[in-house]
Write the structure tokens for this entry.
Amino acid sequence: MEPLIGSVEAGGTKMVCAVGTGPDDIRDEVRFPTTAPGETLPRVIDYFRTWQAEHGEAIAAIGYGTFGPCDPHPDSPTYGWVTKTPKPGWSDTDVVGPLREAFGIPIGFDTDVNGAALGEHRWGAAQDVATFAYLTIGTGIGGGIIIDGQILHGLIHPEVGHIPMPRDPAIDPFAGTCPFHGDCLEGLAAGPAIGARWQVPATELTPEHPAWDLEAHYLALACRSLVCTLSPQRIVLGGGVMEQLHLFPKVRARTLELLNGYVQAPQVLERIEEYIVPPGLGNRAGAAGCIALGQLALAGAP
Amino acid sequence: MEPLIGSVEAGGTKMVCAVGTGPDDIRDEVRFPTTAPGETLPRVIDYFRTWQAEHGEAIAAIGYGTFGPCDPHPDSPTYGWVTKTPKPGWSDTDVVGPLREAFGIPIGFDTDVNGAALGEHRWGAAQDVATFAYLTIGTGIGGGIIIDGQILHGLIHPEVGHIPMPRDPAIDPFAGTCPFHGDCLEGLAAGPAIGARWQVPATELTPEHPAWDLEAHYLALACRSLVCTLSPQRIVLGGGVMEQLHLFPKVRARTLELLNGYVQAPQVLERIEEYIVPPGLGNRAGAAGCIALGQLALAGAP
């Protein structure tokens, strides 16, 4: 029997806690707002305690996928912390410590997007490749990267939303929403940027609106940047904005135009529709990813 | 006794062949122009044959670092080939095959920059880190990337010179030299781009020339892009352009400005002079890198 894993998706606005063994076996799920850590973390603990008591079953590990930045390095003194974040109250907050103390079980910890990437690798759209990138385009833009089957951390963890982007003010005078960089990828192409640029929430724009060609252009620039830097075997684009599935053909076509034949791989040139793809797990990607992080911890990753 | 390795740096304009065991023990070196493969590869073979005969010593393996693009995947049918390249005569050329046939010893094969990165990891400026990027800024711009001690290949291999770059035509009207992308990193910041923009060879520009502030700006954008994508523990900048050592303080300062405090790592914020560094091997980086590729092949990597 597969061990039961507790899943915590810690988003900037809401927490999603779940219990399950994988994307096809999520047994329970609750959502509540992300408030101060002193209120939110006890609520997470209480959820898993209550669930175990009510079901008479023990959770074997917990996977915690968090908004960034965080410290995912097990050998660091601040491992398991949310580090310097603009989110009020959460800077330098140990989130793994309280969970370990409460349950005494392995706690997996990483960025939400690294978790989602791992979930896509285990069960979703990237099962057959070893090296790929997962981007989520929603209220922000984040990237999780798997290299030879392992989550990439490096110095801290990737922050793909903040790569510099070319912007032609004659075509797009919108200066971007990022408080740090203005017109970085996130500042130009996340959901709030689309809404602010066109003065209409992104979800209310019809598929014919020119907003989507511009959006596809920026996402294709991001894909070209990823291709040239990481040489991924696949790029998975998820998040709320990518639920506009009509974006995929546009992003693929524009990526080929922007690469302009430079990368001579049949996977890109001949099969782009299998190269830039939606997540295989759909809206279960978040919970599944955290379950995968918990499984990793249970298997002995620290 | 360390086994003797043959080193082949295959550049677009010249070949450098050497014999040695590491950067401090390069016993011989020759240079000749890169012409057609049917002329160049026999000349490489002849060099090693003659060297062995004259010295009565056997070379145990050869490391071949090539201009790109190439196929560095051992399980591919075109492994060891230079693939589609604008360089006349070299498209789809098997370079490993003739060497294997001539010598019957292990042949290491990769891009020249992946070789140089491996050399810097083994003997140079990146011995104490596991994940880093090596950029060479010369007649072109290339990047070698090491993740957890292993060369990153992914789909093919990185082509960091071709990442998209923001360019403000009001500040820099020069449209770039890249035949594929115009104003990509290589098109804006490689040596020939500097020369074409200012109508003076880069080597003749004084350190006070405004060319270098603009160059530092583009290289800093590249560093920010690398930091946000790979989260490297160090960035090594090599190649002919970086022999202008006055560029380093400018690139470091501009990288910090462009990151704008977003990446809260002391390695970046407090010790940038140890984060963005010149190669430790100087002008031996190329030969040493190819020796490292040969050692890798000898150790059993295919």
